[in-house]
């Protein structure tokens, strides 16, 4: 399927005269896969020959990771402009303070030499009052200017935050995406050591390929949104949950307890059951959706790459069994020579026989 999509992407690029760049490839992949219906609609509005400028604007909005430098440069320029205006306002305030100080000094000196002349003293007091009003107005204006500049800088900061969020979010599900998954794995190795209390749970939705046909794009978008909403609501806040495409779902947790992995798999199954039932009601002539889960903990792997590979192998074994089972990789059983066995768990948490 991945090769079919790639062939379609390059065919569309050639037909529409689109430059085959990484950003354009990812744009078309998001459109064809149905992962981002808003992007698809925006792309269709561009017509049969979108310009490089139009495509660059779409990439900037929907794929900010490809435009990070441009966005960063613009945000930096915007902040610089706001700070320059703030510095200008500070200079104006300093001038007003100096003028006010000079007016105070002049009035004080004139009063000292007035020798009881009431009119002269009254005139100096009026000048002091006028100078004080001007200074108060200057202070008020400066406070408003500072607030405006801070609001503008906050808006720029929010733009950067949103770009960062979009960069690591799967658009159709609202879950973490593959890029975020890779980043979280890399962060686990920040100390340079293999994390000890850590596990990976991978999940695959069986029969999901029914949505890969062209007339299923809208339904797929709705199903993905439903999947994301249910998982975000049901899964514990402290675990990472991402839609990483291949396999579909990844869960990262700071636990190696098999009971905890079973619990997470059970939560996923319960959360997605209404989604599967809804799809079956809408598409009764298709095979029902199922969920298979495979996992590996830090004690059964020597690196994160090894853990991920073993979780994928456990998932492959899990897909051989009815819906609701979790396969956890177990390297302790060497009875099959060089081939590792898996410990198989049922959905009701009862231990089943190892896969033979």
Task: Describe it.
This protein is α+β, with helices and mostly antiparallel strands and 356 residues long. It has three domains: 2-66, no CATH class; 68-167; 178-345, Alpha-Beta Plaits, CATH 3.30.70. It is 59% helix and 10% strand. The protein contains ten helices and six strands. The chain has a six-stranded mixed sheet, sandwiched between helices. A hairpin with a 5-residue loop joins strand 2 (240-243) and strand 3. The chain is elongated.
Short description:
The protein is of the alpha+beta class and 356 residues long. Helix content is 59%, strand content 10%. The chain has ten helices and six strands.
List keywords for this structure.
6 strands, 10 helices, GGDEF_dom, six-stranded mixed beta sheet, Alpha-Beta Plaits, disordered C terminus, alpha+beta, Rev_trsase/Diguanyl_cyclase, GGDEF domain-containing protein, 3 domains
Fold blueprint:
Elements: H1 2-16, H2 22-33, H3 37-44, H4 52-62, H5 68-112, H6 118-167, H7 178-188, E1 199-206, H8 217-234, E2 240-243, E3 249-253, H9 258-282, E4 290-297, H10 304-318, E5 326-330, E6 341-345
Parallel strand pairs: 4-5
Antiparallel strand pairs: 1-3, 1-4, 2-3, 5-6
Helix pairs in contact: 1-2, 2-3, 5-6, 8-9
């Amino acid at each position: 399927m991945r090769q079919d999509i790639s062939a379609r992407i390059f065919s569309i690029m050639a037909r529409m005269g689109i430059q085959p760049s990484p950003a354009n490839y990812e744009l078309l992949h998001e459109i064809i896969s149905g992962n981002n219906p808003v992007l698809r609609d925006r792309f269709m509005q561009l017509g049969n020959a979108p310009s490089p400028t139009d495509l660059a604007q779409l990439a900037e909005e929907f794929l900010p990771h490809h435009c990070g430098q441009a966005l960063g440069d613009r945000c930096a320029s915007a902040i610089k402009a706001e700070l320059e205006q703030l510095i200008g306002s500070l200079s104006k305030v300093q001038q007003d303070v100096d003028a006010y100080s000079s007016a105070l000094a002049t009035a004080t000196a004139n009063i000292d030499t007035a020798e009881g002349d009431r009119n002269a003293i009254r005139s100096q007091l009026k000048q002091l009052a006028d100078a004080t009003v001007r200074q108060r107005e200057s202070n008020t204006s400066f406070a408003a200017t500072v607030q405006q500049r801070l609001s503008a800088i906050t808006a720029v900061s929010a733009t950067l935050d949103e770009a960062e969020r979009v960069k690591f979010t799967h658009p159709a599900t609202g879950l973490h995406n593959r890029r975020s998954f890779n980043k979280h794995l890399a962060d686990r190795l920040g100390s340079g050591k293999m994390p000890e209390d850590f596990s990976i749970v991978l999940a695959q939705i069986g029969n999901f390929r029914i949505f890969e046909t062209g007339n299923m794009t809208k339904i797929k978008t709705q199903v993905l949104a439903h999947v994301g909403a249910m998982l975000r609501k049901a899964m514990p806040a402290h675990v990472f949950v991402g839609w990483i495409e291949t396999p579909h779902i990844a869960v990262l947790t700071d636990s190696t307890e098999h009971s905890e992995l079973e619990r997470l798999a059970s939560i996923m199954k319960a959360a997605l059951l209404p989604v599967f039932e809804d799809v079956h009601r809408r598409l009764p002539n298709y095979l029902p959706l199922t969920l298979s889960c495979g996992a590996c903990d830090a004690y059964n792997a020597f690196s994160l790459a090894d853990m991920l590979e073993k979780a994928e192998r456990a998932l492959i074994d899990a897909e051989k069994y009815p819906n609701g089972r979790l396969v956890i990789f177990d390297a302790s059983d060497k009875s099959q020579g060089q081939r590792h066995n898996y410990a198989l768990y049922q959905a009701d948490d009862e231990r089943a026989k190892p896969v033979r």
